[in-house]
């Protein structure tokens, strides 16, 4: 009888533990989705503006699609990656400050980030101005390089929108004010669709119209979020412009640089693949096919990137409050949830392997080339559902410099050399698209 009683007690304890675990997962999921839901909506909308531009450009012709793909993916993408990475320092600083209830420091940190990013943006301007000779040096055809270089100059206003937008997003995100970011992003996307149709299809302004509608669309959220953050809706965290923003700039620059290197090395890897593809035979078709797959991957990547942002905030908040176990549990829940989404989209790509490129082009040769990449695209999507969340842990913990070394090893000491080897030595062409996220996960 005593043994039966002990068994019942043990069963009850296990049931309580399971119930407790389910309740903890549910509570943590609610906290994550408070950030993830709006973040997915806003990131899909913001990246959707780039996709809409490529869709309209793709129906202008193969050369136009290749040119704007090179300009937006390589020139803008290189700078986007660095500025985005540098702004991610705010996820560490603002997240921990908010968790420690040092609310006024969030506004100070954001102003420091604006100063650092603006100086960096000025230093990066020559990449836009001299895009044509830079692209020719990398082996792009003269026709693609000339047109992509012209488009790159038209993208300069968008370049400076990044300077103000990225810190604003992280400032609001750290306070869980995510819905305002999402609604402004959705409004920008809808406005961009209308302007793109009017200027590109209606007025026949071609790539010039595409570039200027994209510039305008990226500045709309800057103005909207600045008005929300600095005009009375964040009274605790925004107390006005402060001289304190100019102090501690060197320490802030070091953390921003580590964050920039961590994320941009990963971001640049995909741009280098596009450049390498431009040196293959039948470059226009190869660039178009890989650009389509890269953009689909990047668009789906907005989901794990939303989990990346949420994980960074949750880990930073918990560490700021001195709760290391809470940070670990948030990581486990975030990785598991994101992986489920990755598996779903991987299956969808496999099922629609011959049709997913139709939204970008009607060219038969490009559609055939893109369909051959479906298996690798699906596998990449699945792996990328885990890796960004681990980067989010690094950002929330302030480990950016360590992850930068891991990125260098995985992407540049292994990934790019293997791509070159397969593309030229083994003549695998555009199938060099091998993702090294699995190495980072291990």
Overall description:
The protein is an all-alpha fold. The protein folds into 2 domains: 36-247, no CATH class; 260-433, no CATH class. 82% of the residues lie in helices and 0% in strands. The chain has 18 helices and no strands. The protein has helices spanning 2-58, 62-87, 89-99, 104-129, 131-137, 142-154, 156-173, 178-202, 206-230, 249-277, 283-300, 302-320, 324-351, 364-371, 374-383, 387-397, 400-425, 437-441. Helix 2 packs antiparallel against helix 4. It starts with a helix and ends with a helix. Residues 430-442 have low confidence and may be disordered. It comes from Amborella trichopoda. The chain crosses the membrane at residues 40-60, 66-93, 114-135, 147-168, 180-200, 212-231, 329-352, 373-396, 402-426.
Q: Which descriptors apply to this entry?
A:
single chain, 18 helices, mainly alpha, 442 residues
Which secondary structure elements does this structure contain, and how are they paired or packed?
Layout: H1 2-58, H2 62-87, H3 89-99, H4 104-129, H5 131-137, H6 142-154, H7 156-173, H8 178-202, H9 206-230, H10 249-277, H11 283-300, H12 302-320, H13 324-351, H14 364-371, H15 374-383, H16 387-397, H17 400-425, H18 437-441
Total strands: 0
* Overall residue-averaged pLDDT value: 79
Largest sheet: none
Q: How many domains, as an integer?
A: 2
Query: Ends: how far apart?
Result: 50 Å
| Relative strand content | under 5%
Please trace the helix and strand order, writing H or E for each element.
HHHHHHHHHHHHHHHHHH
Net shape: globular
Helix content bin = over 70%
Structural class category: mainly alpha
What Rg, in angstroms, do the CA atoms define? Answer: 23 Å
Task: Give me the number of helical elements.
Answer: 18
Low-confidence parts: 430-442
């Amino acid at each position: 009888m005593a043994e039966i009683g002990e068994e019942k007690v043990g069963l009850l304890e296990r049931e309580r533990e399971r119930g407790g675990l389910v309740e903890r997962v549910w509570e943590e999921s609610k906290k994550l989705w408070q950030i993830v839901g709006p973040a997915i909506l806003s990131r899909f909308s913001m990246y959707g503006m780039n996709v809409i531009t490529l869709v309209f450009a793709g129906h202008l012709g193969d050369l136009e699609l290749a040119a704007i793909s090179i300009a937006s993916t390589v020139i803008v993408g290189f700078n986007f990656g660095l500025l985005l990475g540098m702004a991610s320092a705010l996820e560490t600083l603002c997240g921990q400050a908010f968790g420690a209830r040092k609310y006024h420091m969030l506004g100070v940190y954001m102003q420091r980030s604006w100063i650092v990013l603006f100086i960096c943006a000025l230093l990066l301007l020559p990449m836009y101005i001299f895009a044509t000779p830079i692209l020719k040096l990398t082996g792009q055809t003269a026709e693609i390089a000339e047109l992509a270089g012209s488009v790159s100059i038209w993208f300069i206003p968008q370049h400076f929108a990044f300077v103000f937008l990225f810190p604003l997003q992280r400032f609001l995100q750290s306070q869980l004010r995510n819905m305002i970011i999402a609604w402004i992003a959705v409004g920008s996307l809808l406005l961009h669709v209308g302007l793109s149709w009017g200027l590109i299809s209606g007025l026949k302004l071609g790539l010039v119209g595409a570039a200027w509608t994209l510039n305008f669309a990226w500045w709309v959220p800057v103005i909207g979020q600045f008005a929300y953050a600095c005009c009375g809706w964040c009274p605790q965290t925004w107390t006005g412009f402060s001289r304190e923003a100019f102090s501690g700039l060197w320490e802030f620059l070091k953390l921003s640089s580590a964050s920039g290197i961590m994320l941009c090395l990963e971001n640049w890897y995909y741009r280098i693949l596009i450049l390498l593809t431009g040196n293959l035979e039948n470059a226009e078709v190869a660039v178009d096919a890989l650009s389509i797959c890269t953009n689909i991957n990047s668009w789906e990547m907005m989901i794990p990137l939303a989990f990346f942002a949420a994980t960074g905030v949750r880990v930073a908040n918990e560490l700021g409050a001195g709760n290391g176990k809470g940070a670990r549990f948030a990581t486990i829940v975030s990785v598991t949830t994101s992986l489920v989404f990755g598996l779903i989209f991987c299956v969808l790509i496999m099922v629609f392997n011959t049709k997913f490129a139709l939204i970008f082009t009607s060219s038969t040769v490009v559609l055939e080339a893109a369909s051959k990449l479906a298996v690798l695209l699906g596998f990449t999507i699945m792996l990328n559902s885990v890796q960004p969340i681990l980067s989010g842990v690094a950002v929330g913990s302030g480990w950016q410099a360590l992850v930068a070394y891991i990125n260098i090893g995985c992407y540049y000491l292994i990934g790019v050399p293997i791509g070159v080897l397969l593309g030229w030595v083994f003549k695998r062409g555009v199938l060099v698209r091998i993702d090294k996220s699995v190495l980072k996960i291990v």
